[in-house]
Amino acid sequence: MYWRRIADLPTWLKAVMVGQLVSSAGALAWIYLTLYLVEDRGMSAQQAGFAAAAYGIGLLGGNLGGGWFGDRFGLRTAAVASQLAWVVTCCAMPLVGTSWIGVVAALAALAGLCGGASRPNLSALVATALPAERRREGIALSRTASNAGFTIGPPLGGLLAAYNFSLVFLVDAVTSLVMAAVIWRFVPAARRTASVRVHGLWKALARDRSVLVLLATIVVVDTVYRQIFATMPLLLRDAGTPAVAYGVLIGVSSVVIVLLEAPLAVRLRGHRANRVIAIGFALVGAGLAILGVWPALVGATLAIVVITAGEMLYKPTATAHVADAAPEGMVGRYSSLYAAASISGMFLAPALGGSAYQHVPGALFPVAAALAVVAAIVQSQVRSADREAEPAGPPSGSRGRPSSVS
Protein backbone atom coordinates (compact mmCIF):
# COMPACT_ATOMS: atom_id res chain seq x y z
CA MET A 1 0.00 0.00 0.00
CA TYR A 2 2.73 2.45 0.99
CA TRP A 3 4.85 1.78 -2.11
CA ARG A 4 1.77 2.08 -4.29
CA ARG A 5 1.22 5.57 -2.89
CA ILE A 6 4.78 6.51 -3.83
CA ALA A 7 4.18 5.20 -7.34
CA ASP A 8 1.13 7.47 -7.58
CA LEU A 9 3.22 10.62 -7.08
CA PRO A 10 3.81 12.84 -10.13
CA THR A 11 6.73 11.60 -12.25
CA TRP A 12 8.53 14.93 -12.02
CA LEU A 13 8.28 14.90 -8.23
CA LYS A 14 9.81 11.42 -8.02
CA ALA A 15 12.62 12.64 -10.28
CA VAL A 16 13.24 15.63 -7.99
CA MET A 17 13.47 13.33 -4.96
CA VAL A 18 16.06 11.19 -6.73
CA GLY A 19 17.93 14.40 -7.50
CA GLN A 20 17.73 15.35 -3.83
CA LEU A 21 19.28 12.04 -2.83
CA VAL A 22 22.17 12.55 -5.26
CA SER A 23 22.65 16.18 -4.27
CA SER A 24 22.56 15.40 -0.54
CA ALA A 25 25.09 12.59 -0.96
CA GLY A 26 27.42 15.10 -2.57
CA ALA A 27 26.72 17.94 -0.13
CA LEU A 28 30.24 17.84 1.29
CA ALA A 29 31.98 21.15 0.73
CA TRP A 30 30.61 23.17 3.59
CA ILE A 31 30.55 20.27 6.05
CA TYR A 32 34.32 20.13 5.72
CA LEU A 33 34.91 23.85 5.21
CA THR A 34 36.69 24.60 8.49
CA LEU A 35 38.88 21.50 8.27
CA TYR A 36 39.69 22.29 4.63
CA LEU A 37 40.74 25.87 5.33
CA VAL A 38 42.96 24.85 8.25
CA GLU A 39 44.55 21.64 6.97
CA ASP A 40 44.68 22.18 3.21
CA ARG A 41 44.89 25.96 2.91
CA GLY A 42 46.95 26.73 6.03
CA MET A 43 44.55 29.21 7.63
CA SER A 44 44.38 29.69 11.36
CA ALA A 45 41.47 28.24 13.30
CA GLN A 46 40.23 31.78 13.93
CA GLN A 47 40.22 32.65 10.23
CA ALA A 48 38.47 29.39 9.34
CA GLY A 49 35.90 30.04 12.06
CA PHE A 50 35.29 33.51 10.65
CA ALA A 51 34.62 32.02 7.21
CA ALA A 52 32.30 29.38 8.69
CA ALA A 53 30.39 32.09 10.58
CA ALA A 54 30.01 34.04 7.34
CA TYR A 55 28.57 30.93 5.72
CA GLY A 56 26.08 30.60 8.57
CA ILE A 57 24.95 34.20 8.17
CA GLY A 58 24.48 33.66 4.45
CA LEU A 59 22.55 30.45 5.12
CA LEU A 60 20.09 32.27 7.34
CA GLY A 61 19.68 35.06 4.79
CA GLY A 62 19.09 32.56 1.99
CA ASN A 63 16.43 30.73 3.98
CA LEU A 64 14.68 34.01 4.71
CA GLY A 65 14.88 35.48 1.22
CA GLY A 66 14.79 32.47 -1.10
CA GLY A 67 11.04 32.06 -0.95
CA TRP A 68 10.46 35.68 -1.94
CA PHE A 69 12.55 35.08 -5.06
CA GLY A 70 10.54 31.93 -5.77
CA ASP A 71 7.19 33.67 -5.40
CA ARG A 72 8.35 36.58 -7.53
CA PHE A 73 10.09 34.74 -10.38
CA GLY A 74 8.78 31.18 -10.07
CA LEU A 75 9.74 28.29 -7.80
CA ARG A 76 11.29 26.31 -10.65
CA THR A 77 13.40 29.24 -11.81
CA ALA A 78 14.52 30.06 -8.27
CA ALA A 79 15.42 26.45 -7.49
CA VAL A 80 17.55 26.11 -10.64
CA ALA A 81 19.22 29.50 -10.12
CA SER A 82 20.17 28.71 -6.53
CA GLN A 83 21.63 25.34 -7.53
CA LEU A 84 23.70 26.88 -10.33
CA ALA A 85 24.95 29.68 -8.08
CA TRP A 86 25.96 27.03 -5.52
CA VAL A 87 27.93 25.23 -8.26
CA VAL A 88 29.84 28.43 -9.00
CA THR A 89 30.73 29.00 -5.33
CA CYS A 90 31.91 25.39 -4.95
CA CYS A 91 34.17 25.70 -7.97
CA ALA A 92 35.48 29.11 -6.85
CA MET A 93 36.46 28.22 -3.28
CA PRO A 94 39.59 26.14 -4.15
CA LEU A 95 40.75 28.95 -6.45
CA VAL A 96 40.62 31.79 -3.91
CA GLY A 97 43.95 32.83 -2.39
CA THR A 98 44.30 31.89 1.27
CA SER A 99 45.68 35.33 2.16
CA TRP A 100 42.40 36.95 1.12
CA ILE A 101 40.38 36.10 4.22
CA GLY A 102 37.84 38.80 3.38
CA VAL A 103 37.26 37.27 -0.05
CA VAL A 104 37.05 33.77 1.40
CA ALA A 105 34.48 34.93 3.96
CA ALA A 106 32.48 36.79 1.29
CA LEU A 107 32.47 33.69 -0.91
CA ALA A 108 31.39 31.55 2.04
CA ALA A 109 28.55 33.98 2.79
CA LEU A 110 27.46 33.87 -0.86
CA ALA A 111 27.52 30.07 -0.77
CA GLY A 112 25.34 30.08 2.33
CA LEU A 113 22.94 32.48 0.65
CA CYS A 114 22.61 30.19 -2.38
CA GLY A 115 22.30 27.01 -0.34
CA GLY A 116 19.79 28.58 2.02
CA ALA A 117 17.66 29.87 -0.87
CA SER A 118 17.40 26.39 -2.35
CA ARG A 119 15.70 24.79 0.65
CA PRO A 120 12.42 26.76 0.90
CA ASN A 121 11.90 26.69 -2.85
CA LEU A 122 12.31 22.92 -3.00
CA SER A 123 9.92 22.54 -0.05
CA ALA A 124 7.42 24.80 -1.79
CA LEU A 125 7.76 22.82 -5.04
CA VAL A 126 6.88 19.62 -3.19
CA ALA A 127 4.02 21.29 -1.28
CA THR A 128 2.41 22.80 -4.37
CA ALA A 129 2.68 19.54 -6.30
CA LEU A 130 0.33 17.67 -4.01
CA PRO A 131 -3.20 18.06 -2.67
CA ALA A 132 -3.42 19.17 0.96
CA GLU A 133 -4.12 15.66 2.26
CA ARG A 134 -0.84 14.35 0.81
CA ARG A 135 1.50 17.22 1.67
CA ARG A 136 2.81 15.78 4.92
CA GLU A 137 3.58 12.57 3.08
CA GLY A 138 5.33 14.44 0.26
CA ILE A 139 7.41 16.53 2.65
CA ALA A 140 8.36 13.39 4.61
CA LEU A 141 9.42 11.63 1.41
CA SER A 142 11.48 14.67 0.41
CA ARG A 143 13.18 14.63 3.82
CA THR A 144 13.74 10.89 3.44
CA ALA A 145 15.54 11.40 0.15
CA SER A 146 17.76 14.10 1.66
CA ASN A 147 18.48 12.12 4.83
CA ALA A 148 19.36 9.03 2.78
CA GLY A 149 21.89 11.12 0.89
CA PHE A 150 23.32 12.54 4.11
CA THR A 151 24.03 9.03 5.41
CA ILE A 152 26.26 8.50 2.35
CA GLY A 153 27.91 11.91 2.08
CA PRO A 154 30.10 12.42 5.18
CA PRO A 155 32.00 9.11 4.86
CA LEU A 156 32.46 9.78 1.14
CA GLY A 157 33.77 13.25 1.94
CA GLY A 158 36.25 11.83 4.42
CA LEU A 159 37.65 9.47 1.79
CA LEU A 160 37.93 12.24 -0.80
CA ALA A 161 39.56 14.62 1.69
CA ALA A 162 42.22 12.03 2.48
CA TYR A 163 43.12 11.87 -1.21
CA ASN A 164 42.61 15.45 -2.41
CA PHE A 165 40.55 18.01 -0.51
CA SER A 166 39.62 19.90 -3.67
CA LEU A 167 37.66 16.85 -4.85
CA VAL A 168 35.18 17.51 -2.05
CA PHE A 169 34.19 20.78 -3.72
CA LEU A 170 34.22 19.22 -7.18
CA VAL A 171 31.84 16.40 -6.17
CA ASP A 172 29.55 18.89 -4.46
CA ALA A 173 29.46 21.02 -7.61
CA VAL A 174 28.77 18.06 -9.90
CA THR A 175 25.94 16.64 -7.77
CA SER A 176 24.38 20.11 -7.45
CA LEU A 177 24.59 20.46 -11.23
CA VAL A 178 22.75 17.14 -11.52
CA MET A 179 20.03 18.51 -9.22
CA ALA A 180 19.70 21.68 -11.32
CA ALA A 181 19.42 19.58 -14.49
CA VAL A 182 16.75 17.36 -12.93
CA ILE A 183 14.66 20.38 -11.89
CA TRP A 184 15.02 22.03 -15.30
CA ARG A 185 14.27 18.83 -17.22
CA PHE A 186 11.43 17.34 -15.18
CA VAL A 187 9.66 20.10 -13.23
CA PRO A 188 6.78 21.55 -15.30
CA ALA A 189 7.29 25.00 -16.74
CA ALA A 190 5.67 28.07 -15.21
CA ARG A 191 1.90 28.17 -15.05
CA ARG A 192 1.16 31.69 -13.86
CA THR A 193 -2.35 32.99 -13.31
CA ALA A 194 -3.59 36.50 -12.77
CA SER A 195 -4.97 35.56 -9.37
CA VAL A 196 -1.53 34.88 -7.85
CA ARG A 197 -0.68 37.56 -5.31
CA VAL A 198 2.93 38.45 -4.51
CA HIS A 199 2.46 41.21 -1.94
CA GLY A 200 1.20 41.58 1.61
CA LEU A 201 3.18 38.90 3.47
CA TRP A 202 3.06 40.62 6.86
CA LYS A 203 -0.63 41.47 6.49
CA ALA A 204 -1.33 37.82 5.72
CA LEU A 205 0.66 36.68 8.75
CA ALA A 206 -1.09 39.19 11.00
CA ARG A 207 -4.41 37.62 10.05
CA ASP A 208 -3.21 34.13 10.99
CA ARG A 209 -1.85 34.15 14.52
CA SER A 210 -1.44 30.37 14.47
CA VAL A 211 1.39 30.57 11.92
CA LEU A 212 3.27 33.16 13.98
CA VAL A 213 2.90 31.03 17.11
CA LEU A 214 4.07 27.94 15.23
CA LEU A 215 7.15 29.76 13.95
CA ALA A 216 7.96 31.02 17.47
CA THR A 217 7.59 27.56 19.00
CA ILE A 218 9.70 26.04 16.21
CA VAL A 219 12.54 28.44 17.13
CA VAL A 220 12.32 27.30 20.77
CA VAL A 221 12.08 23.60 19.98
CA ASP A 222 14.81 23.68 17.32
CA THR A 223 17.15 25.34 19.82
CA VAL A 224 16.58 22.67 22.47
CA TYR A 225 16.45 19.83 19.93
CA ARG A 226 19.90 20.73 18.60
CA GLN A 227 21.39 20.21 22.04
CA ILE A 228 21.83 16.61 20.89
CA PHE A 229 24.47 17.99 18.52
CA ALA A 230 25.77 20.92 20.57
CA THR A 231 26.13 19.62 24.13
CA MET A 232 25.15 15.94 24.26
CA PRO A 233 28.61 14.95 22.96
CA LEU A 234 30.13 16.83 25.93
CA LEU A 235 27.71 15.13 28.32
CA LEU A 236 28.66 11.67 27.03
CA ARG A 237 32.37 12.51 27.04
CA ASP A 238 32.19 13.54 30.68
CA ALA A 239 30.36 10.28 31.42
CA GLY A 240 33.26 8.34 29.92
CA THR A 241 31.52 7.34 26.69
CA PRO A 242 33.78 7.07 23.60
CA ALA A 243 33.10 9.49 20.77
CA VAL A 244 32.37 6.66 18.34
CA ALA A 245 29.32 5.68 20.40
CA TYR A 246 27.84 9.14 19.90
CA GLY A 247 28.47 8.91 16.17
CA VAL A 248 26.70 5.54 16.02
CA LEU A 249 23.69 6.97 17.87
CA ILE A 250 23.32 9.86 15.42
CA GLY A 251 23.83 7.54 12.45
CA VAL A 252 21.17 5.10 13.67
CA SER A 253 18.79 8.02 14.21
CA SER A 254 19.24 9.04 10.56
CA VAL A 255 18.59 5.48 9.37
CA VAL A 256 15.39 5.29 11.44
CA ILE A 257 14.18 8.57 9.90
CA VAL A 258 14.88 7.27 6.40
CA LEU A 259 12.96 4.05 7.06
CA LEU A 260 10.01 5.26 9.12
CA GLU A 261 9.28 8.97 8.68
CA ALA A 262 7.35 8.78 5.41
CA PRO A 263 5.23 5.71 6.38
CA LEU A 264 4.45 7.44 9.69
CA ALA A 265 3.32 10.57 7.83
CA VAL A 266 0.98 8.44 5.71
CA ARG A 267 -0.43 6.73 8.81
CA LEU A 268 -1.10 10.05 10.59
CA ARG A 269 -2.27 12.07 7.58
CA GLY A 270 -5.86 12.21 8.89
CA HIS A 271 -4.92 13.67 12.28
CA ARG A 272 -4.96 17.40 13.01
CA ALA A 273 -1.59 18.96 12.28
CA ASN A 274 -1.45 20.95 15.53
CA ARG A 275 -1.95 17.82 17.62
CA VAL A 276 0.76 15.88 15.76
CA ILE A 277 3.17 18.82 16.09
CA ALA A 278 2.41 19.24 19.80
CA ILE A 279 2.99 15.54 20.48
CA GLY A 280 6.27 15.76 18.56
CA PHE A 281 7.37 18.73 20.69
CA ALA A 282 6.42 16.83 23.86
CA LEU A 283 8.45 13.78 22.79
CA VAL A 284 11.49 15.99 22.18
CA GLY A 285 11.01 17.34 25.71
CA ALA A 286 10.68 13.82 27.12
CA GLY A 287 13.91 12.75 25.43
CA LEU A 288 15.79 15.74 26.80
CA ALA A 289 14.39 15.02 30.26
CA ILE A 290 15.79 11.46 30.02
CA LEU A 291 19.22 12.95 29.29
CA GLY A 292 18.87 15.17 32.33
CA VAL A 293 18.19 12.31 34.74
CA TRP A 294 20.22 9.55 33.03
CA PRO A 295 23.41 11.14 31.56
CA ALA A 296 24.98 7.89 30.39
CA LEU A 297 25.13 5.88 27.17
CA VAL A 298 22.01 3.82 27.93
CA GLY A 299 20.08 6.96 28.85
CA ALA A 300 21.34 8.74 25.72
CA THR A 301 20.24 5.79 23.58
CA LEU A 302 16.73 5.91 25.01
CA ALA A 303 16.69 9.70 24.69
CA ILE A 304 17.67 9.57 21.01
CA VAL A 305 14.90 7.05 20.32
CA VAL A 306 12.29 9.33 21.90
CA ILE A 307 13.66 12.54 20.34
CA THR A 308 13.83 10.91 16.89
CA ALA A 309 10.18 9.89 17.24
CA GLY A 310 9.32 13.49 18.09
CA GLU A 311 11.33 14.80 15.14
CA MET A 312 9.54 12.45 12.73
CA LEU A 313 6.20 13.75 14.00
CA TYR A 314 6.73 17.49 14.08
CA LYS A 315 9.15 18.31 11.26
CA PRO A 316 7.30 17.10 8.14
CA THR A 317 3.93 18.02 9.67
CA ALA A 318 4.99 21.58 10.53
CA THR A 319 6.57 22.11 7.10
CA ALA A 320 3.40 20.99 5.33
CA HIS A 321 1.17 22.91 7.77
CA VAL A 322 2.89 26.21 6.99
CA ALA A 323 2.49 25.53 3.26
CA ASP A 324 -1.20 24.77 3.86
CA ALA A 325 -1.60 28.10 5.66
CA ALA A 326 0.01 30.13 2.87
CA PRO A 327 -2.29 32.30 0.75
CA GLU A 328 -2.08 31.59 -2.97
CA GLY A 329 1.16 32.97 -4.40
CA MET A 330 2.94 33.06 -1.01
CA VAL A 331 3.95 29.43 -0.52
CA GLY A 332 7.59 30.27 -1.21
CA ARG A 333 7.74 33.07 1.35
CA TYR A 334 5.88 31.09 3.99
CA SER A 335 8.28 28.20 3.36
CA SER A 336 11.18 30.63 3.76
CA LEU A 337 9.94 31.77 7.15
CA TYR A 338 9.57 28.19 8.30
CA ALA A 339 13.00 27.23 6.92
CA ALA A 340 14.64 30.12 8.78
CA ALA A 341 12.87 29.23 12.03
CA SER A 342 13.80 25.58 11.67
CA ILE A 343 17.54 26.28 11.40
CA SER A 344 17.64 28.93 14.12
CA GLY A 345 18.98 26.36 16.54
CA MET A 346 22.14 26.05 14.47
CA PHE A 347 23.15 29.45 15.86
CA LEU A 348 21.32 29.55 19.18
CA ALA A 349 21.94 26.00 20.43
CA PRO A 350 25.78 26.07 20.58
CA ALA A 351 25.93 29.52 22.17
CA LEU A 352 23.17 29.07 24.74
CA GLY A 353 23.80 25.40 25.39
CA GLY A 354 27.57 25.77 25.63
CA SER A 355 27.30 28.59 28.16
CA ALA A 356 24.72 26.70 30.22
CA TYR A 357 26.78 23.50 30.18
CA GLN A 358 29.83 25.37 31.42
CA HIS A 359 28.10 27.20 34.27
CA VAL A 360 25.03 25.12 35.24
CA PRO A 361 25.43 21.72 33.54
CA GLY A 362 22.87 20.01 35.73
CA ALA A 363 20.13 22.43 34.73
CA LEU A 364 20.68 22.44 30.95
CA PHE A 365 18.69 19.39 29.89
CA PRO A 366 15.85 19.74 32.44
CA VAL A 367 15.33 23.36 31.36
CA ALA A 368 15.53 22.37 27.68
CA ALA A 369 12.94 19.65 28.32
CA ALA A 370 10.64 22.09 30.09
CA LEU A 371 10.87 24.57 27.20
CA ALA A 372 9.89 21.87 24.68
CA VAL A 373 6.91 20.83 26.80
CA VAL A 374 5.79 24.46 27.20
CA ALA A 375 6.06 24.88 23.42
CA ALA A 376 3.86 21.79 22.99
CA ILE A 377 1.23 23.20 25.36
CA VAL A 378 1.29 26.64 23.72
CA GLN A 379 1.02 25.15 20.24
CA SER A 380 -1.98 22.99 21.09
CA GLN A 381 -3.79 25.68 23.10
CA VAL A 382 -3.35 28.49 20.59
CA ARG A 383 -4.58 26.34 17.74
CA SER A 384 -7.63 25.36 19.82
CA ALA A 385 -8.35 28.99 20.63
CA ASP A 386 -8.08 29.95 16.97
CA ARG A 387 -10.54 27.25 15.92
CA GLU A 388 -13.05 28.37 18.51
CA ALA A 389 -12.73 31.99 17.43
CA GLU A 390 -13.07 31.30 13.70
CA PRO A 391 -16.42 30.81 12.02
CA ALA A 392 -17.14 27.47 10.44
CA GLY A 393 -15.44 27.16 7.09
CA PRO A 394 -13.62 24.75 4.85
CA PRO A 395 -11.84 21.86 6.52
CA SER A 396 -8.26 22.22 7.68
CA GLY A 397 -5.76 22.35 4.83
CA SER A 398 -8.20 23.66 2.22
CA ARG A 399 -6.56 27.06 2.03
CA GLY A 400 -3.32 25.70 0.58
CA ARG A 401 -4.60 24.79 -2.89
CA PRO A 402 -1.93 23.56 -5.29
CA SER A 403 -0.61 26.53 -7.22
CA SER A 404 2.05 27.08 -9.84
CA VAL A 405 5.17 24.96 -9.63
CA SER A 406 7.08 27.44 -11.75
From TrEMBL:
Keywords: Cell membrane, Membrane, Transmembrane, Transmembrane helix, Transport. It is found in: Cell membrane. Residues 12-387 form the Major facilitator superfamily (MFS) profile domain. It is a multi-pass membrane protein. Residues 383-406 are annotated as: Disordered. GO terms for molecular function: transmembrane transporter activity. It holds the Pfam family MFS_1. This is MFS family arabinose efflux permease. One of its GO terms (cellular component) is plasma membrane. Residues 395-406 have a biased composition (Low complexity). It comes from Kribbella pratensis. The chain crosses the membrane at residues 12-33, 45-64, 84-113, 165-187, 211-232, 244-266, 297-314, 359-378.
